Amino acid sequence: MAVAKTARVMGTERLGSDTLLLDLCAAEPLGFVGGQYLILDSRIILPSGKAVKRAYSLLTGDAEQRRFQLAVKRIPDGLGSAFVHGLAAGTDISFSGPWGKFVPREGVSGSTLILATDTGITAALGFLRATRFAPLLPQALLIWLRASAEYFLPEEFVRKQVPAACGEVRIEAIPAVGHRERVPHARAILREVLSRGNCSQAFMAGDGAVNQVLLDDVAAAGVAVSKDNVESFFNMPKKSA
Ligand SMILES: Cc1cc2nc3c(=O)[nH]c(=O)nc-3n(C[C@H](O)[C@H](O)[C@H](O)COP(=O)(O)OP(=O)(O)OC[C@H]3O[C@@H](n4cnc5c(N)ncnc54)[C@H](O)[C@@H]3O)c2cc1C
Q1: Could you point out which of 61, 97, 169, 201 has its C-alpha 20 to 30 Å from the C-alpha of 114?
Q2: Domain membership flag for residue 239
Q3: 186-196 pLDDT tens trace
Q4: Distance from the CA of 159 to the center of ligand 1, in angstroms?
Q5: Does residue 54 contact residue 39 with C-beta atoms inside 8 Å?
């Protein structure tokens, strides 16, 4: 059973039409590693009896364990994201975590590819800002693919969160979620990066439909990866896949 913890909303900021940035302060240090997520409890109970609880990745670095930020995209008719968008400063929220294996490995050297799609940029930012990832930053390439410049977080905001030591940042547009050209487009970008031939490890966060195919491509290119290198936020791969 997950232990319920609490955090206070210290402030909120709207970043674009459907994105809320939440500033939170946890009652106790979180004990997280950059790349992990929390599960917020909206305290909404569906008629089926199921509680509405949703995962959100910490986008701030793990050097600070009590003050942290989450960025949440409002999903049409979504109860969890609507709950978050309704939060105001001074409210206490309940959560469990940290959860997840999408964290930098210890004792690894060489160059790292972190490829985020859509809202997956939050996990990618948390990962890049992990204390243990600092030595690998100069050889890191962050790629963020999303449908347009208006999607989720402004490019300028994202670039500001990326540590200055990060080797390269690419932010590009790809076809929207569900578009038939989306996966081929993402694969073409990955192919070009892998053709450089110096990728030691790769991590993917965001659209599960993209992650699943790219994970296979990365493995086929001889880069050591496992399912723990992937954090899917939606379009979850089937458990048996
Ligand atoms: C590990 C993890 C970390 C996550 N971190 C974040 C985060 O940092 N910021 C954030 O905004 N969301 C994040 N999410 C997604 C979040 O947990 C919810 O799925 C989202 O807020 C929608 O919840 P809802 O109750 O509003 O809508 P629901 O009714 O639960 O969702 C409706 C549908 O929309 C899908 N969906 C969720 N996100 C998207 C998207 N971006 N594009 C298209 N479809 C989507 C859901 O999978 C579902 O099928 C994360 C998910 C996971 C699993």
Answers
A1: 97
A2: no
A3: 999 999 999 99
A4: 23
A5: yes
